[in-house]
């Protein structure tokens, strides 16, 4: 998409964000384009996942108030952190691969055309609705000690939500942030680059904030928006809170490893003492959740004792729910 077109889409969002209905003609006058062209732009925004209501005789109106992310204010709130903000990107994780990688660099996007989840799944990423971001993190820890990292990221997110007044978020090993069994967000940790002089880790996070249900048809599990839990939380505020908590937790993880996070994990472990099934590429194992060990491996209580399960191609399902 051309930059000019992107600017026109942003301008329409900004106009509609002021609240109320705007006629096609009013928008056309502001953009100095035809009404027919405005209609095309509106259609494009809807295809990108922006919830826009269209009422004959009244015009267009946003389903949810949108506050577009703003790089200077994010930067200021995060003590001049290196932040790259794009309107559209393929995947924020991919943007940090290879040459794009820098320690502590935050890549944020309003829309991902190829957002990825764990195990090659698609991450639905409608425009200006949620948070999609990735953080570059260079570490001297050996790869065997990174098993608990995605759990630590989840704990940072839960802490940030608590700071913003949302209690009761839970974590489903290894990467789901949930609320009463519905997914609020997910974490995708990937390693990149050569391993000389430290590992390059990419921490990718997607959080549902005010995604329109029309944009979420492709999601095959129960999900929930942060704004359903607390309507006045904005995306800026949430991103800043999570990144601040994460910065602290990453430092502690680098210094002391996962074991110091085990108590926090116990408090939010959705699967503890629940019937679960571990689904592996070639078989499944039933058991009960028995917490995690000090490397972040999931502990599965079976009839034959406790088995540690390492992330990778496995999926963990609560036995009451059909889909993970
Ligand atoms: C999952 O639950 O399977 C993990 C989802 C991770 C999604 C985020 S959105 C930002 C970053 N970029 C991606 O392509 N994926 C992660």
Word description of this protein:
The protein is of the alpha+beta class. It has helices at 3-16, 24-31, 35-47, 71-77, 92-95, 149-163, 226-229, 235-256, 262-268, and strands at residues 52-55, 59-62, 83-89, 106-112, 131-139, 169-172, 176-179, 182-192, 199-207, 275-279, 284-292, 298-302, 305-309, 315-318. Strands 3-4-5-9-8-7-6 form a 7-stranded mixed sheet. A 5-stranded antiparallel sheet has the order 13-12-11-10-14. Strands 1-2 form a two-stranded antiparallel ribbon. Helix 2 packs across helix 3 and helix 6 (149-163) packs across helix 8 (235-256). It is globular and about 70 Å long. The mean pLDDT is 93. Bound molecules: biotin (BTN). The site of biotin has 21 residues, from helix 5, strand 5, strand 8 and strand 9.
Bound molecules: biotin
From N to C, what is the helix and strand string? HHHEEHEHEEHEEEEHHHEEEEE
Backbone shape? globular
Count of beta strands: 14
A few lines on this structure:
With 324 residues, this protein is an alpha+beta fold. Helix content is 29%, strand content 27%. Helix 2 (24-31) crosses helix 3 (35-47) and helix 6 (149-163) crosses helix 8.
Key descriptive features of the protein:
alpha+beta; five-stranded antiparallel β-sheet; 9 helices; 14 strands; globular; binds biotin
Secondary structure elements and their pairing?
Layout lengths: L2 H14 L7 H8 L3 H13 L4 E4 L3 E4 L8 H7 L5 E7 L2 H4 L10 E7 L18 E9 L9 H15 L5 E4 L3 E4 L2 E11 L6 E9 L18 H4 L5 H22 L5 H7 L6 E5 L4 E9 L5 E5 L2 E5 L5 E4 L6
The structure holds biotin.
The site of biotin has 21 residues, from helix 5, strand 5, strand 8 and strand 9.
């Amino acid at each position: 998409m051309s930059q000019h077109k992107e600017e026109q889409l942003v301008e329409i969002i900004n106009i509609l964000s002021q609240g109320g209905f705007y006629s096609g003609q009013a928008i056309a006058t502001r953009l100095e384009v035809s009404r027919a062209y405005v209609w095309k732009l509106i259609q494009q925004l809807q295809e990108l996942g922006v919830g826009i209501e269209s009422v004959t005789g009244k015009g267009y109106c946003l389903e949810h108030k949108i506050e577009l992310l703003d790089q200077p204010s994010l930067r200021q709130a995060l003590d001049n952190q290196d932040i790259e903000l794009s309107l559209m990107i393929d995947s924020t994780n991919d943007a940090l691969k290879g040459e794009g990688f820098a320690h502590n660099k935050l890549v944020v996007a309003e829309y991902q055309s190829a957002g990825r989840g764990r195990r090659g799944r698609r991450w639905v990423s409608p425009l200006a609705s949620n948070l999609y971001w990735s953080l570059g993190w260079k570490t001297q820890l050996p790869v065997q000690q990174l098993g608990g990292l995605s759990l630590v990221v989840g704990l940072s997110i839960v802490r940030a939500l608590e700071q913003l007044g949302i209690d009761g978020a839970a974590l489903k090993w290894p990467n789901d942030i949930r609320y009463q069994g519905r997914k609020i967000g997910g974490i995708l940790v990937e390693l990149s680059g050569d391993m000389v002089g430290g590992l390059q880790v990419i921490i990718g996070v997607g959080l549902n904030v005010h995604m329109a249900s029309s944009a979420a048809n492709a999601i095959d599990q129960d999900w929930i928006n942060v704004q359903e839990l607390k309507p006045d939380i904005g995306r800026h505020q949430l991103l800043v809170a999570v990144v601040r908590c994460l910065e602290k937790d990453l430092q502690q993880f680098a210094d002391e490893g996962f074991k110091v996070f085990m108590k926090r994990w116990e408090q939010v472990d959705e699967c503890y003492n629940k019937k679960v099934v571990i689904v592996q590429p070639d078989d499944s194992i039933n058991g009960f959740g028995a917490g995690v060990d000090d490397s972040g491996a999931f502990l599965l209580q079976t009839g034959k004792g406790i088995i540690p399960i390492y992330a990778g191609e496995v999926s963990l399902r609560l036995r009451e729910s059909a889909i993970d």
